Amino acid sequence: MAPFPATRAATWPEAGAVMPATSPWRGFATRGLATVLACTLIAATIAGIGGGDLMVSLVYSFSIGLQCWLAVDGGRVLAARAVRRWRPADAAALQGWPGWPLMTLVIATGTSIAYASGTALADAITGVGHAGDGQAWRGYVLWLLVSIVAGAVITGYHYAKARLELTRAEAEAARRLAAENQLRLLQSQLEPHMLFNTLANLRVLIGADAQRAQAMLDHLIAFLRATLAGSRRDTHRLADEFARLHDYLALMQVRMGARLQTRLELPPALAELPVPPLLLQPLVENAIRHGLEPKVAGGRIEVHARVTGGELCLTVRDTGVGLGAAASARAADAASSFGLDNVRARLHALRGDDLGLRLRAAGDDEGGTLAEVCLPRPAPAAASPAPAPTMESQPK
Amino acid sequence: MTDAATRSTPRALIAEDEPLLAAALQAELVRAWPGLEIAAVAADGDTAIAQALALEPDVCFLDIRMPGRSGLEVAQALAEDWPHASALPLLVFVTAYDQYALQAYEAAAVDYLVKPVQAPRLAACVRRLRERLDARHGDAPAGRAGAGGELDTTLARLRELLAAVAPAAAAARLEVIQAQVGAMVHLVPVDQVIYFEAADKYVRVVTAEREHLIRMSLRELLPQLDPQRFWQVHRGTVVQARCVRSARREDSGKVTLHLAGRPETLVASRLYAHLFKGM
């Protein structure tokens, strides 16, 4: 009498991913048991009110109730099948739920038919005939109403229960996916090659230049703290974003020496704008890993922020080997393509479209790659009110 | 024999792109191996190849991930271009992290160091290297037979390593090469290509009638070719097997290939000479 999660999972692979793994027979048995309980309750109530024989009430109740259940549950499956033939993509029908209008029809007709045959069966069992009874029509109508109400209530109950289970399963799946993504993002940021090379450099500095070692360790600590905490916060200040990029680039500068020059330019007016934490980190990592690290002479990386129109645009530019060479290397590197996907997904959530990230050749004499991220200009996190003209484009 | 064999002080080359790590490895080697001369420290793969060929060190410490050419490509180039008369340097690969190829690197090199390099580990590595060098000097009077055996083993291991870390074959084989000349694009069926030759950032595509340049590296092209038909015979050359008319083995261990349809000859390096043995 209810959308039946696991039975339809086989015909709807996507549902299989979020459905709790109950067997179809367990669901069937649960509903059968619930029907038996309801029938007992109804019989006891009617015998109590009407003062009739409890045994007789039980026979009628069971005979009618179980047939109603079979008619309604069977009717549901058939109706859902019909809906599927008619609208193959209907998600609810794929899970065995034909929708409330059809279901009302199923309950009304199924219960009426089952009531008639259930009464006939009970008459035969008990030998109590209603034909010659002057009061028969009252009992008949009472039992019919009871049957229809019971059918509707039980169906509604199972429907709500299955709904709840589905929602819970979906929430669980979403939670699992989020945790998995967070882990993969961490893995791409705490890439072992980067980490161990950094530690190797730190080890050397400890012996050679304790002061520089301490400064490097401070950058490493700030980088690790931000990376580990970043995915748990919604936003931080753009100034913090730049500070974290500075930490990462300072580490890379120790490693690459004169091969890496950096320039971070953040206009003071934009420092307080809230941005998703470590949004630019994968872009800067890519610029290093695929742009500058492979280039013998090394080069420069520049990060800028500016506001144009209603958008906050952040650019990461390198003078590395360029998009063509970097792309083929990146294709072989799952971690970094995950980093880019992550930036795209976060921008999609902010903007609702896929235009937020652009990668292109820098297009001047120095060559290299230009990555640009544009997001709707956020309202400043500080209490000071934002200038009116840009208010319309601010997300809430 | 040459300098390397008669020299009393062993010489080493370090190839490491991170300046602090290069300096540290140099300092620790001096401590762990008194008497070792650090002949050169190279910061990229190409410099490492040039310096090694010029200075003929006994030992090379090769960082695997370097700008330009990787440590592995350096090893390949040295195996191919090393002067015939002297023994190949002993190779030690150094890396921060390599999840997959670790065992292959271990098998191919005399030793394999993981960064940060720790003193006891480096001391053990130095011991192994000295034993190998001593054994080499012991072999010298017996002639080249011993050295030749060692060379063959080294080459075989390097071949295995190259195969182990080679990029997986592309899903789709290339059937037609699109070579652009100005506004014109020439379509060259792969079957008509006699050989491909690496030329800086390009690949020369040579057919019986003419040649084209395509903007692609040989490394990118290789996984798209059928390895049964197209044989890599040198780090910079891939030849279509049916276009090789004859192969002549030289004293140096290299093999000269004569082609059907082209007047020039190609050279198969020592690493790939095994492809041209009589049946």
Oligomeric state, counting identical vs distinct chains: heterodimer
What is CATH's topology name of the largest domain in chain B? Rossmann fold
CATH superfamily of the largest domain in chain A: Histidine kinase-like ATPase, C-terminal domain
| Domain tally of chain B | 2
Architecture (CATH level 2) name of the largest domain in chain A:
2-Layer Sandwich
As a percent range, the share of strand residues of chain B is 25-35%
From the 3D structure, determine the CATH topology of the largest domain in chain A.
Answer: Heat Shock Protein 90
Low-confidence parts of chain A, pLDDT < 50 over ≥5 residues?
1-21, 383-396
CATH class of the largest domain in chain A: Alpha Beta
List the helices and strands of chain A in order: HHHHHHHHHEHEEHEEHHEE
Beta-strand share of residues of chain A = 5-15%
Integer-rounded radius of gyration of chain B: 20 Å
Major β-sheet of chain A, in short?
5 strands, mixed
Find the CATH superfamily of the largest domain in chain B.
Response regulator
Radius of gyration of chain A: 34 Å
Largest sheet strand order of chain B: 2-1-3-4-5
The CATH C-level class name of the largest domain in chain B: Alpha Beta
**Rough outline of chain B:** elongated
CATH architecture of the largest domain in chain B: 3-Layer(aba) Sandwich
Notes on the structure:
With 396 residues, chain A is α+β, with helices and mostly antiparallel strands. Chain A folds into two domains: 5-185, no CATH class; 190-393, Heat Shock Protein 90 (2-Layer Sandwich). Chain A has 13 helices and seven strands. Chain A has helices at 5-9, 13-18, 24-50, 54-86, 91-94, 100-126, 136-189, 192-208, 210-230, 238-256, 281-292, 323-331, 334-351, and strands at 236-237, 260-265, 274-275, 299-308, 311-318, 357-361, 369-376. In chain A, the strands form two sheets. Chain A has a five-stranded mixed sheet with strand order 2-4-5-7-6, covered by helices on one side. In chain A, β6 and β7 form a beta hairpin. In chain A, α4 (54-86) runs antiparallel to α6. Mean pLDDT of chain A is 80; it is low at 1-21 and 383-396. By secondary structure, chain B is of the alpha/beta class. Chain B has two domains: 3-165, Response regulator (Rossmann fold), CATH 3.40.50.2300; 176-276, Beta Barrel (OB fold (Dihydrolipoamide Acetyltransferase, E2P)), CATH 2.40.50.1020. Helices cover 34% and strands 28% of the residues of chain B. Chain B is built from eight helices and 15 strands. In chain B, the strands form four sheets. Chain B has a five-stranded parallel sheet, with helices on both faces. In chain B, strands 10-9-8-12-11 form a five-stranded antiparallel sheet, with no helix packed on it. A three-stranded antiparallel sheet of chain B has the order 13-14-15, with no helix packed on it. In chain B, α5 links the parallel β4 (90-95) and β5. In chain B, α3 (45-55) packs parallel to α4 and α5 (102-108) packs antiparallel against α7 (144-165). Residues 141-145 of chain B have low confidence and may be disordered.
